[in-house]
Amino acid sequence: MFGYGVVGQGLHDVLMESSGFHADIARICVKHHNKKRRIPMRYFTFDKKDILDDPSINLVVELIDDAEEAYKIVRAALTGGKNVVSANKKMVAEHLDELIDLQEEHKTSLLYEGAVCGAIPIIRNLEEYYDNELLFSLRGIFNGSTNYILSKMFNENMDYEEALKNAQKLGFAESDPWLDVSGTDANYKLSIIIEHAYGLYIRPEDIFHVGITNINTQDMQFAREKGYRIKLIPYAGRVGEDGLTGFVLPRFLTQDKKLYTVENEYNGVVVEAAFAEKQFFYGKGAGGHPTGSAVLSDISANSFFYAYEYKKRKQKLGLSFTSDVTLEIYFRYRDKKDAGLLDFDEVTESYAGPDYNYIIGRISLQELAGKKKEILEREVSIINTGLKPEKRVS
Ligand SMILES: NC(=O)c1ccc[n+]([C@@H]2O[C@H](COP(=O)([O-])OP(=O)(O)OC[C@H]3O[C@@H](n4cnc5c(N)ncnc54)[C@H](OP(=O)(O)O)[C@@H]3O)[C@@H](O)[C@H]2O)c1
User: Fold this and answer.
1) DSSP assigned state of 388
2) 183, 201, 246, 267: which could join 285 in a potential S-S bond, CB 3.0 to 4.6 Å?
3) Would you say the CB of residue 8 lies under 6 angstroms from ligand 1?
4) Is 242 helix (H, G, I), strand (E, B) or coil?
5) Which domains, and CATH codes, for the chain?
6) With a 6 A CB cut-off, is 2 part of the ligand 1 pocket?
């Protein structure tokens, strides 16, 4: 095992309590020499070679918080003939194409259920249950910290800064929350999901994502008055004949939507399929024990020689990823000079007040992507209204 932090210790607890499955942890590699550990020091090493070069170890469980180092460890393990279980979404999302090739070349396996939505078994379901399904779309709440912050802002009328501090105090957000609040963490997970749902590897930086940093109390008030909630929603879905689009954006949800009910640190995933129709997964997306349980499930699956087959990739669905689509968005701005910041294809509603203005209309995803820097820097917000993305007709 690499790492003995929140997830590493969580896994250890889950493993100790598991009645059905038994595994011996041979060694645990950690980083800091002087940290107090809850189990005897003889289990620990600070040298990764003690694990990677030990021929008696047949499985590496990678649970460290450094994605670059994790990549080196996972690469070395897979090339050296060891199977790997990881919960590192950044590492998996950034290197998935290569990691798939490495598994094939070295006849080794990499499982990473814990990397996407904690205890919700979405990857295994995409691989095994929806393997022959035509999937129209997948969306969800993939990040517990941002969902907790948005829930607090909505239900307790907190502003963003206060809700963030609250989340940090309770351990639902990191001291450096950027990966979560910028939508980057949700984006990594979306990139991994797209591979398993559609067989395409889309690099995280090629998926448009905006997080929750610009959402303010006026946006919350607008949502409240309309009976909506605001959630950060990653989306991937089919457009046109052979197109696939994807993005991460805050979105309004009406009360009849399953994701409306997903509050605080919980996660949810909605799968829309041609034959199975709409299905909803709900559960804890993070935390030592929930994530540890997903990791244990992968360890157990590995003992039965389970490996992802990347079935959708092999089916060669002929899809191409596109941002040539339009979305309907709510664009809120304070300063009148920002009124023309975004070039809408069509405006359906607008409001102008002394310090609160908004425009609702259809806009191309490419236009949003081109203005991302300005959107983030100015006193404005964008929220997807949830209308289905449409292929752009120019
Ligand atoms: N926390 C969650 O709820 C959650 C949920 C899903 C996925 N994940 C993912 O799981 C992974 C672990 O997260 P975490 O929250 O458990 O992190 P964490 O509590 O910060 O623990 C990180 C662990 O990694 C060890 N470490 C860091 N760099 C290392 C290196 N170069 N070599 C060996 N050990 C190293 C640390 O060693 P020391 O003990 O010596 O500091 C520590 O034990 C991350 O990829 C994270 O994204 C976390």
Assistant:
1) P
2) 267
3) yes
4) coil
5) 6-123+291-314 (3.40.50.720), 125-284+316-391 (3.30.360.10)
6) yes
**Which tokens in the block code for residue 163?**
């809700």
Is any ligand 1 atom within 6 A of the Cβ of residue 285? no
Tokens at 96, concatenated = 């998935």
pLDDT one-digit tens code per residue, 246-287: 999 999 999 999 999 999 999 999 999 999 999 999 999 999
Ligand 1 lined by 330 (C-beta under 6 Å): no
pLDDT > 90: percent of the chain: 94
Q: Which atom of ligand 1 is nearest to the CA of 32?
A: 40
Distance from the CA of 175 to the center of ligand 1, in angstroms?
A: 14
pTM here? 0.97
DSSP type of residue 257:
S
Please give the helix or strand (H or E) that residue 347 lies within, else none: strand 346-352
Catalytic residue chosen out of the listed positions 82, 89, 189, 284: 189
Nearest CA to ligand 1 atom 8: 87
pLDDT in the model for residue 97: 98
Q: Which of 27, 28, 31 to mutate to test the pocket of ligand 1 (most atoms within 8 A of CB)?
A: 31
pLDDT exceeds cutoff 80 at 394: no
**Which tens digits make up the pLDDT trace of 207-253?**
999 999 999 999 999 999 999 999 999 999 999 999 999 999 999 99
Residue nearest to ligand 1 atom 14, measured at CA: 6
Q: What are the pLDDT digits (tens) for 183-196?
A: 999 999 999 999 99
The yes-or-no answer on residue 189 being catalytic is yes
264: left (phi over 0), alpha (psi -120 to 50) or beta: left
